[in-house]
Design goal:
Length: 835
């Protein structure tokens, strides 16, 4: 196991409530106030007027304004003059050297600062901070520099609890090491004393973005409200807009950052990334030239381009760009991390692990690399099953079981989608299963916390194994179909399809694959539609990237899939592939709408609104609120006819008033006939019908649930039992098959399905089910293998049956049933069987 080295010293609670009166008496306080509010020109004039005591502070202001050459000479003069804050000047020069990509000079100066600091008897707060900054420059190649940096910042806080700079730097250090909780605590400690601190708000925004929270953009806006000139906040806002495919906004924020600080490599990088992704070659060349002038080996520029490409799912492009970044700076941990994790996304497992090992050797305190490398160590024991088109990678105890079902499903999906989208992903498509959701999250992000069930990077898919989730919360078959669809839509569009459409197509294809799969209308979705809380189609990407309320992203999946339904109704199934081709050719969404549908975005929005309201007209009437809730209010419960009717039905059931309950439930069913939730009327009506012995009605009603709800475990069990009692073998088998896609771990289901398959002479299915029982390693494994041999023989594969029996008899020579079957098969002339 690899161990990250950074730990937290307990100094976050040291801030006190003392006012800043003494600080305000310092003539430098006015310069700092001007800096904190973004008045950099005024701050520069005030610093120049302050004389020699302001030299280092003047250098800091010049850096903020992009006047790097003048800042360098200003810092140098402070050192020559023996300024009391010369350590701050020295570390600032080291940071400027790092910005230029001059690692040797940066390391020399940082080492000099640390040595001087260590020889001090009573370091000042500024000296503590300078030492911490120097240690941060020395973290590459040092296993302890991060801890020493933290200790220095904590010492500054201990000496003066009002030292907000030390707290900000502490938060920055933790964020750099992916210690998001400690970073959040540090930034919040600053904000308790200075609620408008722009840098602390920026730090919190970065924490939120790291955690995948949709509030990051709103938080960075607080930072910019406090300091409109904070270049790092402007660049971060540009990155967030770029991630959300808001290219115009990203461009505006990047240019605003450059206007403040024309020497900002991050700002030029984001402008370049926006131009790269939109095909603006002239702006890209300008941005690249500016970055090269500032950093002759602009590794940071290409790393930013690689990260932007990854966020836009253009993984092959990202690989080329990250390799360029690493070639320009072989010691860049960030570039190596971006390259290594992206190689893993492309299925280049050995190369990715080797690259991350290089990054880890340079900086062992990077938690994401440690997590990923530990996971790769664990995955070394996984079993790989190659089928030609597919490569299934799963924990050894589950691989054989899962492959029995997932391989045929993927083959069917591949053939179906290849025809639909005129595209074939390059085989083998790799699918990885994980028994722990945390492991799947690490595989995807390098950190725990991803709430998704699966992910597609193109020809590499990763997802939770069915064992990773509580039974009845997850359908692993529909999830696999969903993720494989992404491989087609990403590939057919050259990885340029926007997220909303790619997700919508995947959910749409789930529903086409099997009844009950994919998202469906819920009462909360219809309520949101009724209240006008859904975004128009032209803005739907924001539902995924910046949801306004907890359910909005989930609503976005379903809404996007309904758009696909509408598109097919209007223009036929080829309209979907036509959209992908248009995106592949570089068109933006308005152009795609015009090219494929002949409509503007506003017209698409209006048409979809009309279409969806017609599609859900009946439940919309039922959801008509008796207590109208404002569209912006996401907390107040709705009072609607459907909910009121269901509440009344439940009250009747609790009192044992079954006839009254049935009447209320039937009324609710008429209000929302499409609803298949297990909290809906069909499920309760089915139970009532079963209790009164009306199996015909019970089957009809429970089918309303099982054909609309992909995780309805109990409903499928009820349907299987009811159909089996009526002698409906085919219907029983269909219900049992649905259960296996919810959870395949109950051996009794497999035995039951195998027996039914034999009754229907479906011997291949019986073989599959007997193999599943063996894969589950039952207590009586020999009996299970004997039953497998019987099924193989019944399927005509006598050779495979004899092999199975020989293995059984080697372990249990006196197993009489196995002996008898083996002799029987031996007496027959075995045809050439196929396994």
């Amino acid at each position: 196991m690899r161990h990250a080295s950074l730990t937290r010293a307990p100094f976050l609670a040291l801030l006190c409530a003392a006012c800043l009166a003494l600080a305000e008496q310092d003539p430098r306080a006015e310069v700092r106030r001007l800096v904190d509010t973004g008045q950099y020109a005024e701050a520069e004039r005030a610093a120049r007027a302050g004389g020699g005591a302001m030299t280092v502070l003047l250098g800091d202001v010049l850096v903020l304004r992009g006047k790097l050459a003048e800042a360098q000479s200003t810092y140098a003069s402070a050192i020559t003059a023996g300024s009391s804050d010369r350590l701050s000047a020295e570390v600032a020069l080291a940071e400027l050297a790092r910005r230029r990509g001059d690692h040797e000079t940066a390391t020399q100066r940082a080492t000099s600062v640390v040595n001087a600091y260590n020889n001090m008897n009573a370091p000042s707060g500024d000296a503590h901070i300078a030492a911490g900054r120097a240690q941060m420059l020395l973290m590459v190649g040092s296993s302890s520099a991060a801890s020493r940096a933290l200790a220095a910042f904590d010492a500054a806080t201990a000496a003066d609890s009002s030292n907000l700079e030390a707290q900000r730097r502490t938060g920055d250090l933790f964020l750099l090491r992916h210690g998001n909780e400690d970073a959040r605590s540090a930034y919040r400690a600053v904000l308790r004393r200075a609620p408008n601190d722009a840098r602390a708000h920026l730090g919190l925004a970065r924490v939120e973005d790291f955690e995948g929270k949709p509030t990051a953009l709103a938080t960075v806006r607080k930072s910019l409200a406090a300091n409109p000139s904070l270049t790092d906040a402007l660049a971060f806002a540009a990155r967030l807009h770029l991630e959300g495919e808001g290219y115009d906004s990203a461009r505006v924020y990047a240019r605003r950052a450059i206007a403040v600080d024309s020497a900002s490599v991050p700002a030029w990088s984001l402008l370049g990334a926006t131009a790269w992704l939109t095909g603006d070659s002239a702006t890209f060349r300008t941005a690249r030239a500016a970055a090269e002038a500032l950093q002759p080996q602009p590794s940071d520029f290409y790393t930013e381009l690689a990260e932007a490409s990854i966020r836009h799912r253009r993984y092959a492009d990202a690989n080329v760009l990250a390799q360029r970044a690493v070639s320009l700076d072989t010691s860049s941990v960030l570039a190596l991390t971006v390259l290594g994790t992206n190689q893993l996304r492309l299925g280049l497992m050995r190369e990715g692990q080797a690259t991350l090992d290089r990054a880890f050797k340079l900086d062992a305190s990077d938690a994401r690399n440690k997590n990923t490398l530990d996971l790769l160590d664990a995955m070394a024991s996984f079993k790989t099953i190659d089928t030609g088109r597919f490569r299934i990678v799963a924990p050894p105890e589950e691989a054989d079981l899962l492959a029995l079902y997932i391989v045929p499903l993927l083959e069917r999906a591949y053939d179906t989608l290849a025809v639909r989208y005129a595209y074939r992903p390059t085989p083998p498509v790799r699918l990885e299963f994980f028994r722990q959701s945390a492991d799947f999250s690490v595989r995807t992000l390098g950190a725990v916390g991803l709430g998704a069930l699966g992910v597609s990077f193109g020809s590499l898919l990763a997802m939770d194994a069915p064992s990773a989730r509580e039974r009845g919360t997850f359908n692993w078959g529909s999830t696999a179909w969903h993720e494989l669809t992404h491989a087609f839509t990403l590939g057919a569009s050259g990885h340029r399809v926007p997220r909303w459409l790619s997700e919508g197509m995947s959910v749409f294809e789930e529903r086409r694959a099997q009844a009950g799969w994919g998202a469906s209308a819920t009462t909360s979705f219809v309520s949101a539609l009724s209240a006008g809380r859904l975004r128009p189609m032209s803005q739907l990407n924001d539902s995924f990237l910046r949801p306004r309320f907890p359910e909005e992203t989930q609503f976005g999946y379903y809404q996007a899939s309904l758009f696909c339904e509408m598109a097919v109704e209007l223009k036929g199934i080829t309209s979907l592939s036509a959209m992908l081709v248009a995106y592949r050719d570089g068109a933006d969404t308005p152009t795609v709408f015009q090219r494929v549908f002949g409509l503007t975005p506003a017209q698409v929005d209006a048409q979809f609104n009309t279409w969806i309201r017609a599609r859900l007209a009946t439940p919309l009437r039922a959801m008509a609120s008796n207590d109208v809730m404002a569209a912006s209010d996401t907390t107040r419960p709705r009072s609607d006819a459907m909910s009121n009717t269901m509440r009344r039905a439940m009250q009747h059931l609790e009192r044992g008033e079954k006839d009254q309950a049935r009447a209320a439930l039937e009324e609710a069913q008429r209000m929302f006939p499409e609803y298949g939730g297990t909290d809906g009327p069909s499920w309760f009506l089915a139970e009532l019908a079963r209790d009164r012995g009306d199996t015909t009605a019970a089957i009809r009603l429970v089918s309303d649930v099982t054909t609309r709800n992909e995780v309805a475990w109990e409903a499928n069990m009820l349907e299987a039992d009811l159909r089996e009692r009526r002698g409906d073998a085919a219907g029983t088998m269909a219900a049992l098959e649905r259960l296996l896609w919810i959870s395949p771990y109950d051996p009794t289901l497999h035995v039951r399905l195998a027996l039914l398959a034999v009754v229907r002479n479906d011997f291949l299915r019986a073989v599959r089910e007997r193999r599943a029982v063996v894969a589950l390693r039952p207590t009586d494994l020999l009996e299970a293998r004997y039953e497998l041999a019987k099924a193989l023989a019944a399927a005509g594969d006598n050779a495979a049956a004899r092999r199975e029996l020989l293995d059984v008899l080697e372990q249990a020579p006196s197993f009489e049933k196995a002996q008898a079957l083996f002799l029987e098969l031996r007496a027959k002339k075995s045809p050439e069987g196929v396994r």
